[in-house]
Design brief:
Elements lengths: L1 H17 L4 E4 L5 E4 L7 E2 L48 E6 L4 E4 L5 E8 L7 E6 L2 E2 L8 E4 L5 E11 L3 E5 L3 E6 L3 H11 L2
Parallel strand pairs: 5-12
Antiparallel strand pairs: 1-2, 1-3, 4-6, 6-9, 7-8, 7-10, 10-11, 10-12
Length: 197
């Protein structure tokens, strides 16, 4: 039994150590690669703090006194012992910084990184909801980084909404257009080179 506990403890230590450092590099095919093992020319990725996501309410245990979660777009009253946050934070700017406007992104897997910037920083209790092509892409989260996976090639439009539990959506960004090409940058350069001998 003691050996089993040591093995579990060692596994937990190894897992936490593995999760601390991620490396990235461009492989010989022009694709960006991420790994926990560095390769030649790899750079360490500076990861933002992780975002903890609660499971949907139907998966949580409920008691008679529990209440359903508030709709993000519906105004709710704060509990009597918790006054609403001071309104607050006035964002001087809140914008999509990546991808840039009308950017052409080359990614064979169809993955796109979305980075946001706010001034001042994203306030506690505020969440960001990402809209892709006019539709909500995921649940609101307290983060400024998103990764979109397996997008089809072509034109796409991004928009962000900032919200909280009391006011719902209180800021909507302008639409940001980008173009996804499901080929690598190296393939694109070879194609251009063959067209212009």
């Amino acid at each position: 039994m003691r050996r089993l506990l040591y093995a579990v403890f060692a596994g937990l230590i190894a897992t936490s150590a593995w999760a601390d450092t991620i490396y990235t590099w461009i492989d010989e095919n022009g694709r960006r690669v991420y790994s926990n093992t560095p390769a030649k020319g790899a750079q360490e990725v500076d990861l933002p703090p992780y975002t903890e996501v609660s499971p949907p309410s139907q998966w949580r245990s409920t008691t008679k006194e529990s209440t359903p979660p508030a709709s993000p777009n519906k105004r709710t009253s704060p509990p009597a012992n918790h006054p609403p946050p001071a309104w607050p934070v006035q964002y001087q700017s809140f914008e999509i910084i990546e991808p840039q406007a009308n950017a052409h992104i080359y990614n064979a897997a169809g993955n796109v990184t979305v980075a946001l910037k706010s001034q001042p920083k994203l306030a506690q209790g505020h969440k960001v909801q990402l809209k892709l092509d006019g539709r909500v892409h995921q649940s609101p989260m307290h983060t400024l980084y998103f990764v979109l996976h397996h997008l089809p090639p072509g034109q796409h439009q991004l928009q962000i909404e900032v919200l909280d539990d009391y006011r719902g959506v209180f800021y909507t960004s302008p639409v940001r257009t980008f173009y996804l090409h499901r080929v690598t940058q190296a393939q694109q350069e070879r194609r251009k080179a063959s067209q212009n001998p």
